[in-house]
């Protein structure tokens, strides 16, 4: 029996794979630059590369960070690489914001390389704070109106609302002024609002009187806004004069006493 020569080709399938990983990061707005590390887990026999770029979420390129893009290369001797992104430190009070650093387009020369995740969330922690205040005013009761100004000390990039109410002191609502309540809304970028309160010009002669205008229930979304002076005082100057008069009389010099009327 004659056997023909037979050959078999055996292919060994590599069941190992490498994985690229990148983590989320939170940084203060004033940090200047951040460095994210992309790590290759597993062994490779030749160079591989992966592209990266940034994209907006609530953070906006050029306003909150500087966009960047490029390519990272990994070698059998080097299993990590870094991405640097510049952070913009603005004076705007805007709350915490986020953007993405994305990984795409793995070039692995036939090697099995996957992404554990294809992006990193970078959170920029805003370090700016605004304060809200209301002023005090002094007005003549005859003017008919008291106007107070509510002010922010910095520009805020979100809608702010605050409730306004009045409260008696020596002045009484409906006798000296009209009780007032409501809500003020600051749109992004607005710095001042006014509160107008009607005054009652009574004919009574009174001493100067006061009442309070209170701010409460401040809402600013994610922006850091606090009260600096949440209470304003309105002083009403009374404009009703008082006159003293004495009547004229005629008496004989031997009358002894003279009676005059003072009113």
TrEMBL record:
<keyword id="KW-0732">Signal</keyword>
<dbReference type="GO" id="GO:0030001">
    <property type="term" value="P:metal ion transport"/>
</dbReference>
<keyword id="KW-0106">Calcium</keyword>
<dbReference type="Pfam" id="PF03160">
    <property type="entry name" value="Calx-beta"/>
</dbReference>
<dbReference type="InterPro" id="IPR003644">
    <property type="entry name" value="Calx_beta"/>
</dbReference>
<keyword id="KW-0813">Transport</keyword>
<protein>
    <recommendedName>
        <fullName>Calx-beta domain-containing protein</fullName>
    </recommendedName>
</protein>
<feature type="domain" description="Calx-beta">
    <location>
        <begin position="8"/>
        <end position="104"/>
    </location>
</feature>
<keyword id="KW-0406">Ion transport</keyword>
<dbReference type="InterPro" id="IPR038081">
    <property type="entry name" value="CalX-like_sf"/>
</dbReference>
<dbReference type="GO" id="GO:0016020">
    <property type="term" value="C:membrane"/>
</dbReference>
<feature type="domain" description="Calx-beta">
    <location>
        <begin position="120"/>
        <end position="216"/>
    </location>
</feature>
<dbReference type="InterPro" id="IPR051171">
    <property type="entry name" value="CaCA"/>
</dbReference>
<dbReference type="GO" id="GO:0007154">
    <property type="term" value="P:cell communication"/>
</dbReference>
<keyword id="KW-0677">Repeat</keyword>
């Amino acid at each position: 029996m004659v056997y023909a020569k037979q050959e078999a080709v055996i292919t060994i399938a590599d069941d190992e794979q490498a994985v690229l990983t990148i983590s989320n990061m939170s940084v203060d707005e004033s940090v200047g630059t951040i460095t994210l590390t992309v790590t290759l887990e597993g062994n490779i026999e030749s160079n591989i590369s992966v592209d990266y770029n940034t994209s907006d979420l609530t953070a906006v390129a050029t306003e909150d960070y500087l966009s960047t893009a490029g390519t990272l290369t990994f070698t059998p001797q080097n299993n990590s690489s870094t991405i640097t992104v510049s952070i913009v430190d603005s004076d705007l009070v805007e709350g915490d914001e986020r953007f993405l650093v994305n990984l795409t387009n793995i070039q692995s020369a036939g090697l099995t390389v996957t992404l554990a995740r294809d992006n990193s969330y970078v959170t920029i922690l805003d370090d700016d704070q605004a304060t809200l205040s209301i002023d005090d005013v002094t007005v003549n009761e005859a003017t008919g109106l008291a106007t107070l100004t509510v002010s922010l000390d910095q520009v805020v990039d979100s809608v702010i609302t605050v409730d306004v109410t009045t409260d008696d002191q020596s002045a009484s609502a409906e006798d000296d002024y009209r009780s007032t309540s409501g809500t003020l809304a600051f749109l992004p970028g607005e710095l001042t609002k006014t509160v107008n309160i009607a005054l009652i010009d009574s004919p009574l002669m009174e001493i100067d009187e006061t009442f309070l205008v209170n701010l409460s229930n401040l809402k600013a979304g994610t922006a850091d806004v606090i009260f600096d002076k949440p209470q304003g005082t309105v002083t009403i100057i009374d404009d009703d004069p008082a006159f003293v008069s004495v009547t004229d009389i005629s008496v004989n010099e031997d009358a002894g006493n003279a009676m005059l009327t003072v009113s």
